[in-house]
From TrEMBL:
InterPro entries in the record: KR_dom, NAD(P)-bd_dom_sf, Sc_DH/Rdtase_CS, SDR_fam
Species per Swiss-Prot/TrEMBL record: Comamonas testosteroni
The keyword Metal-binding is assigned to this record: no
Gene3D superfamilies listed in its UniProt record: NAD(P)-binding Rossmann-like Domain
CDD domains for the chain: SDR_c
GO MF annotation terms: oxidoreductase activity, acting on CH-OH group of donors
Record protein name field: SDR family oxidoreductase
Coiled-coil residue windows: none
Length: 250
């Protein structure tokens, strides 16, 4: 049986890397994108290959449409099919109030977290839609509970960028439901990944864990479990869902 193919953006670390490895373990071939961390991306590819998957890492700046198209060209050349897209690439910034936001910060946030997700989804639909000659598939968007909580005095812009992804998830799910494509999102809560350090808060999980009903941060692997399920036939009647993985932080 042919192995299905998943494209995971931002797959060199954190949730993306955990999803890639789990997908490979479940029988998927894997293409990941990365921006800077070539060694980390190569390590993920190696792990996937050891699990019997074909795997490839492609450098792509998700803020640039041409780079996204280059990523999909690599997909077409190397694998010739697409069965699932995981829109995982995302950024945060240092904690600020909205009154302090610069235009540069806002443009970066929305280009990477929101516009790139739209463009990647567009390219996935063009390949997977049964109305366009495809064989269907699944799109899983990685959102955040920040989209519901608002992230005041930290990063309202990040929360808003993920809120837009939630709305895209709902609208696109209805748009392509009859074309063999399911579209869902996961909303991780406080998860132990490097993204907190990139926002200048390396201790954020430890500091905020007591506020979570389960009294701990989550792991990238726990989020990956939900993503891979949403990619699979086990969720074949699930579309337009926003699944919270937040330890009860509702």
């Amino acid at each position: 049986m042919d192995r299905k193919v998943v494209l995971i953006t931002g797959g060199s670390r954190g949730i993306g890397a955990a999803t890639a490895v789990l997908a490979a373990r479940k029988g998927w071939n894997v293409l990941i994108s990365y921006q800077h961390q070539r060694a980390a991306a190569d390590a993920v590819v190696n792990q996937c290959q050891q699990l019997g998957a074909q795997a490839l890492a492609v450098q792509a700046d998700m803020a640039e449409e041409a780079q996204i198209l280059k990523l999909y060209a690599a997909l077409d050349q190397q694998f010739g099919r697409l069965d699932a897209l995981v829109n995982n690439a995302g950024v945060v910034d240092t904690a600020q109030t909205l009154a302090e936001f610069s235009m540069q910060r806002l443009e970066r946030m929305f280009r990477i977290n929101t516009i790139a997700a739209f463009v990647c989804a567009r390219e996935a639909v063009l390949r997977m839609s049964t109305a366009r000659g495809g064989h269907g598939g699944a799109i899983v968007n990685v959102s955040s509970i920040a989209a519901r909580l608002g992230a005041p005095r930290q990063y309202v812009d990040y929360a808003a960028s993920k809120g837009a992804v939630d709305v895209m998830t709902l609208g696109l799910a209805k748009e392509v439901a009859a074309e063999g494509i399911r579209v869902n999102a996961v909303r991780p809560g406080l998860i132990e990944t490097d993204i907190h350090a990139s926002g200048g808060q390396p201790d954020r999980v430890q500091r905020l864990a007591p506020n979570v009903p389960m009294q701990r941060g989550g792991t990238a692997e726990e989020v990956a479990d939900a993503i891979v399920w949403l990619m699979s036939d086990g969720s074949r009647y699930t579309t337009g869902s926003l699944i919270e993985i937040s330890g009860g932080n509702l």
